[in-house]
Amino acid sequence: MIPTSIFNLSLLTALILTSNQLRGSIPSDNGLNLPNLKRIRLSYNKFTGSIPVSMSNASKLQAIDLQSNNLSGPISVDFGRLQYLQILRLSNNNLGFGDQGHLSFLDPLTNCSSLKILDLGTNNFQGSLPRSIANLSNELTIISLEDNQISGSIPSEISNYVNLISLSLKGNKFTGIIPSEIVKLGKLQRVLLSNNRLSGNIPASIGNLSFLDEIHLEDNELQGTIPSGFGNCPMLVLLDLSQNHLSGTIPNKFFNISPFSVKLNLSRNHLVGSLPADIGALKTIVELDVSENEFSGFIPAELGNCITLTSLYMQGNLIHGYIPQSLKYLKGMQHVDFSRNSLSEKLPNFLETLKTLKYLNLSWNNLEGEVPMTGVFANANAFSVVGNKRLCGGIPELQLPRCTQNGPNGTKNPYVAWVELVILIGSIQDLIIITCVFQSWLRRKRRESLSYSASNVMISPKKVSYELLRQATKGFSRINLVSKSDFGLVYKGKIGLQYIGIPEGKKAAVAIKFISEFSITSQSISTGFEGTTGYVPPEYGLGSMVSTKGDVYSYGIFLLEMLTGKKTIDPMFQKGFKLQNFVANALSDGVKEIVDPVNLHELTRDDAAQAEDCLSILFNIGVKCALELPQFRPDISDILSMLETVRIIYKANTGSTKAHANKKFPSCSFDGSKKHEVATTVREQRDASKFNINVDITVYHTVIYGSL
């Protein structure tokens, strides 16, 4: 207890007994016996009982700090008599008893014109805020009413407190909207409105609060989209919008919110679209949570730039593709959750090398291959891979099947069979013979995959006259000179070709198979030069062999052409700027900016809105397929899975029939039995574009037509 003798010191100006183990009640006559008292600080003790009414007699009081005790009951002090009062801290007690009307003690505070701090948080105050809350001192810098049971709406008059730095109303029962007038508080740094029942939109002009460093709006009923203005808050360190009803896509440049951002939480909303590449701008981010939304697309490789990231949560979305290798640069990563998505391909090796990784959840995806046994994978309690039916190996606790050398369908992989045979023979001479046979087999298989015949369409080699080539290149003008190589001079030009036997408008993939075997002496010229025009992958220009990764590149270009209505030979694509670059740069602004209107003209308005998500996925597929380096392109089997996902999403969102969905998005429905046909068709389309002479082909529209 406080010794009673202290209250005989009539000249005492400050009584500071903070952070002790003092008990009992505060003496009831302290205000009468200490008329010169200016500061009383009894915080962080164990005082009980009520606040003495006599405290209002200490008319010179400037600071009252009674926080973090066990004080209870209503507040009966007439604070209006303390005209010099600047600080009133009563938080972390049991004041109020939860009765209505116990906030009336705020009314006399309107006489305290010097009041700067009002802290009543974590008590039992209940009821609506009195009107007097709007008429307190303009000097207020901190208002904290958090963790009570206060109800009603947030008064718009709160904008009167132009010097306010911190506003905390979290953990109450406030309803209604966030008043737009809050943006008038130009000095505001902290806004804590979480755990209420607020609804409506987040004020669009919230970005005008340039000093904001912490915003908590989580666990409300907020609707609408995320304001783009958050990108104008250069000091923002923490932003939490989780557990609301926010929808739409992430606005442009949203991830440029601040170079100092530490935590960003957008989880448990209804956000859609893909995560933009500028997510890599969060250079100092420590925790990123976008879980439990409806995000689609791929995991951005740019996340590898967020080198301070320790916690990454993306579970419960529609994200597909593979786990990017760039995440290996996140050396401080501790918690990763990618569960309940549609991730595919093998587990990346770098995951077992992250020494700081304590928790990894990859469950319920489509991952395949062998589960490592070191690093985080050595502790069954530290990771989860359940629900991935194509995984094998790992520690015994997982009870996964042993990894074998069999292919996906259970048959022996022919490449592995050859290797085993070589090991058994062991002879260098036999090894040479087997290698020759193996190469012969590969060439035969390659020729078979290239032998595609379009339905009822016969295309025979056409000879191109020297005169026609001279006209197409404008007399072999320097303007049309593309490059010089070991093959000779390479020119560009246009030749109008005419095909007989193809019905007008027939949807078929047309391939030009041969334009070669001619010479200048016979008024013909060979045009079979290596190059990268049109659908041809860049590696073919360097002499690489034909591969399925090249087919994937060709399909990606063709898909982007079909979606955008643009061609790779468009004048805008030059000096290294390609169709895939155009699409990747424009995707952050939404698919409406780049999609060919023809792809949407038959849809209803509601269906068109739903179709944008499907189109976004299709555009991402095209961009991924058209990556420069072949090792980063997805496999054809993965493309099939992604297209099937698009079809399912589109049908689920629109309720369209299969025929309707296929009519609008032919690439969203795919017959897996035609995989070889697709690969061959795309390859022959690419071979048609392999020549450095630009050829106009009038019938080329369809890439994939599944079960129409």
UniProtKB/TrEMBL annotation:
It is an enzyme of class 2 (transferase). It is found in: Cell membrane; Membrane. SUPFAM superfamilies: L domain-like, Protein kinase-like (PK-like). GO terms for molecular function: ATP binding; protein serine/threonine kinase activity. It holds the Pfam family LRR_1. InterPro entries: Kinase-like_dom_sf, Leu-rich_rpt, LRR_dom_sf, Plant_RL_S/T_kinase. It comes from the Eukaryota. It is a single-pass membrane protein; Single-pass type I membrane protein. Residues 1-24 form the signal peptide. Its EC number is 2.7.11.1. One of its GO terms (cellular component) is plasma membrane. Keywords: ATP-binding, Cell membrane, Glycoprotein, Kinase, Leucine-rich repeat, Membrane, Nucleotide-binding, Receptor, Repeat, Serine/threonine-protein kinase, Signal, Transferase, Transmembrane, Transmembrane helix. The keyword Membrane applies. This is non-specific serine/threonine protein kinase.
